[in-house]
Write a structure and sequence with these properties.
- The complex is a heterodimer of chains A (373) and B (308).
- Chain A is mainly α.
- Helix content of chain A is 69%, strand content 1%.
- In chain A, β1 (208-209) and β2 (214-215) form a beta hairpin.
- In chain A, α12 (296-306) runs parallel beside α14.
- The longest helix of chain A is centred in the middle third of the chain and has 30 residues, at 130-159.
- Chain B is mostly helical.
- Chain B has a two-stranded antiparallel ribbon.
- The longest helix of chain B has 29 residues, at 10-38.
- The N and C termini of chain B lie far apart (56 Å).
- Classes of the chains: A mainly alpha (373), B mainly alpha (308).
- Chains A and B meet through α6, α7, α12 and α14 of A and α4, α10, α12 and α13 of B.
Amino acid sequence: MADTVNQDTVAVPIGSGLADLIERVRRSSEYVLIPLFALVAAGLLFSIFLLALGQSPATFFSLLWKGGFGTAFSWQNTLVRSAPLILTALCVAIPARLGLVIIGGEGALVLGGFASAVAAIPFVQAGAPNYIVLPAMLVCGMLVGAFWIGLVGVLRHYRGINETIASLLMSYIAIAIMNFFVEGALRDPGNPNKPSTLPIGEANMIGQIPGVGVHWGLLVGIAVAIVLWILMNRTTFGFAARVTGGNVRAARAQGLPVGRLMVIACAIAGACAGLAGFFEVAAIQGKANASLAAGYGFTGILVAFLARQNPLAIVPVAIFLGGIAAAGGLIQRRMGMPDATVQVLQGLMFVVLLVSETLYGRIPFFRPRGDKR
Amino acid sequence: MNETDIGFWGVPLAMFAGAIRVSTPFLFVSLGECLTEKSGRINLGLEGTLVFGAMSGYAIAYLTGSPWLGVLCAGLSGSVFGAIHGYICKLPKVNDIAIGIAMMLFGTGLAFFFGKPFIQPQAPHLPSIELGGWSSLPQVRSALEINPLFFLGFLLAIAMWWAFKNTRWGLIIRMTGDSAPAALAMGYSVDLVRFLATTVGGFFAGIGGAFLSLYYPGAWSEGLSSGQGLMAVALVIFSRWNPLACFGAALLFGAAGALGPALQSVGITQGYYFFNAAPYLLTLFIMIASVSPKRSLKGAPGELSITK
């Protein structure tokens, strides 16, 4: 299981004065410096990979910067991609606090988006205004997402099914369910080329944050991240969840409702992914089709691990990875490299990042004073 | 069409043929996973290994003109992935399930990266052995065109089953998987045993991938594997870490996977996507039915993180 202890749970002796503050910062800087070091190491390894192929790493990384963060247009592109990443990363991070590795966020996103598009159909046909259509879509998308991942929690606790495999299998099933309906019963007859549900209509689409060129999903994602950070770090529920993640037996001995905690955490996670699906439908696609399965669920896993499962850290990391994804097209055009280039970089980052877990607690600089291991 | 049309008998026949045709990758990946898990480690990255094996096997077969060289290369590249996984997992504090997910993303990424130029060209296929010469029905004849890798996988399953029971190496692997302290006490290096088991497991998964691209469906594309490598993990649990049972489970999965195309071939296209999801549903239900939180599973390696 990923080491989910973060700076808040490390026992720091309560002291006063500047020396203690410096000590505190020095010790907790481990959780920032090691991931940064891992990113640099992954960048170096990827440079070697590029050099071996006769490509210039300098060109690659400057294009990465330019395509992700260099211009106002690339920032827009980056932020549009980071909005769903924040939510799918939360789908990984919340259960991870209980020691569950959920990797099926993609399925919950697809099914949540599909459910919200379907929920819109009767309202749109009845001519309902958008302040009725959108909440109905939102609730439907989040509920279906919560049910889908909540089911993984139920299977995990009550049947002992490994949540990693179950969530991934259910992800494939979710995509099949959507394809089944989109190609069949719920297909828009007016759109013969690309199977999709009936469009929700221009009037019901979610607009952009004024002056930013990015839809509201970004702000909602950030707000959800903050709320979930408070929930996990400042409430009894969060404390119980962290105890469970630290040691299930200890949690049971304390009389904590481990099963219920697991199911609730999974349901919250699924609701986040469903929310991401809602925004993909309501703000970008306007209908549900196969392009909902765009891989946000999988990149979200990487975001959550890079952020060490901390909901607040997820926001900058999601923007960072959203930028890498946004630069993919530019790199493909300018350097003539396949579109999977970014995927290779992401995979490499993920591997190096997990390898760097082995460094925690082994570097003398970060140890408490007086610890002469 | 008239005298050879066998109507709805085509469905069971196609499922039988599909079971044999589609099961081979499941068989190889699950045997590889079985070996790795018996040594006490889990490799979710076999999905990436399978995809990369499919790509490298296809590329080598296309470039050299020899499909068997492609199979060998797929196996070797698979063992490289297995070795990386095995090496990383022995570092302290590194979680084998998470590394598996990362290796899966990395492996598929690399396969898509290098496989881009090979999507169009036609590589030579693996030859098949025709056992259906006695029948006048073309459906039966085509159902009995069986790839030699299928038989190889069957023999491998028997060999592994026998070796786990009766050889020194089999005993060492089982002991390492059941109790690392016991293996240490006997003077074996736990890390080395698991490293080798993961490497050889990766070799098998790579061969499974080569079957996909070089025989059935027989071309390299980015949607070639849809989770076969992951289903193998569930399949190994279902077969209780028994290589012979892996063979049976792979056949069952092959049949489930063939259901969608088989129904489509007799004109039932309703629910095509649903039948395509049959293997995933089957895996899930099998896991629900066969795993229990209360008792440890019979035959489960004691050190395995997935059953704890």
